[in-house]
Amino acid sequence: AIDIGALRKQTGMVTIDEGYVNTGAVQSSVTFLNGEEGVLRYRGYPIEDLAANCDFVEVAYLLIYGELPSEEELVKFRGKIRRHTMLHEDLKSFYDGFPRDAHPMAILSSVVSAMSTFYQDSLDPHDPEQVEVSIHRLLAKLPTIAAFSHKKSMGQPFIYPNNNASYCENFLQMMFSVPCEDYEVDKTFVEALNMLLIVHADHEQNCSTSTVRMVGSADSNIFASISAGICALWGPLHGGANEAVVNMLTQIQNDGGDVDKYVDMAKDKDNGFRLMGFGHRVYKNFDPRATLIKTSCDKLLEKLDIDDPLFEIAQKLEKVALEDEYFVKRKLYPNVDFYSGVIYRAMGIPVEMFTVLFAIGRLPGWIAHWREMQLSPTSRICRPRQVYQGSTKREFVPLDKR
Ligand code: ACO
């Protein structure tokens, strides 16, 4: 075991590790990842087993509390989440102020941040009961906040949550039903969404999770911490890549489908173009999430008899890139974001909502890490050091002399 006490006393030497490529910032028991062998396990359970056998709420419980729930624990947990699915009517009125074309990730982070103004009774990170109720509120309300942002963009009335439906079914109902028409959620979509949320649920110290931990390390409340995580996830190099992938595939299609041209472009460092959905900081073999998603994507399109040209372009692109020396040498494989957008498209989810779905999936992971940090007796405020490269001491020059 690492002697944290002894390490803490070691100050004075600063190591530079830009992008934290080799810096372990925490000790964690949430997720195990072996990038060389393409292994991902939540609390010791392979994601393949969880995706095949669990529902998302069950996996959320596992990540947050460390154990798979018993039937009784699961029923109780679901009940606690269902109690909080509605949004406060005043919180709902925030949507009137956002422009109709506002990006839903901006709405998501703003409304989650605003939750700390409505739920002042649960902001203390050191009060376990307050933390518990905040966790239930977040898990319950994020799908509602997300679906309302879509309805806002469509100019349609909000659809209130249905607490008799499952987590995924309820979300799809809030997204797609309209008051004057019958709507039945397609079970195939529910299954696909459940799998997607599970494989996105945690990924150890990624950019957004580290952000949640960083903000939380200052004892900031959980709503503020999660809101910051949402902002980090939005970036195209992180969760925003799923939106960027579909935009890229559409561009390739509109440009005549010349996949080789885009592979060549990605190899040219001067133009700044990268193949979105390729490469990962940790996976240097394959991304096990991408494998699950591709298989599901294949099945879903076949079952629904959808002939999506973007799926064909994606498959071509993968084949060309995986045989190309540039990508092979750098171990650049399709990542979790490469095929997820094709599934979302098949479900009728608009492209700007893709990263929002990632956020709904990642929420239990963020919560698990925030909670693990708060409960750890050794955690302390995150405060990286630097190696200063600026000017040495300079004589002050008054304004009239500059
Ligand atoms: N297309 C072309 N070249 C790439 C790509 C890509 N998608 N990704 C990495 N490279 C190249 C880099 O130019 C670099 O080449 P060099 O060694 O000749 O300089 C080498 O591969 C290593 O890349 P880095 O940027 O140093 O790797 P890093 O670990 O910092 O970045 C990242 C990882 C951000 C995922 C990167 O691969 C990337 O930008 N991918 C595209 C965006 C993407 O799909 N993001 C989603 C990641 S998964 C997630 O967060 C959910």
From TrEMBL:
This is Citrate synthase. One of its GO terms (biological process) is tricarboxylic acid cycle. GO terms for cellular component: cytoplasm. Belongs to the citrate synthase family. One of its GO terms (molecular function) is citrate synthase activity. CDD domains: EcCS_like (cd06114). Keywords: Acyltransferase, Transferase, Tricarboxylic acid cycle. It catalyses: oxaloacetate + acetyl-CoA + H2O = citrate + CoA + H(+). The keyword Isomerase does not apply. The active site is at residues 280, 337. SUPFAM superfamilies: Citrate synthase. The keyword Acyltransferase applies. Pathway: Carbohydrate metabolism; tricarboxylic acid cycle; isocitrate from oxaloacetate: step 1/2. The gene is gltA2.
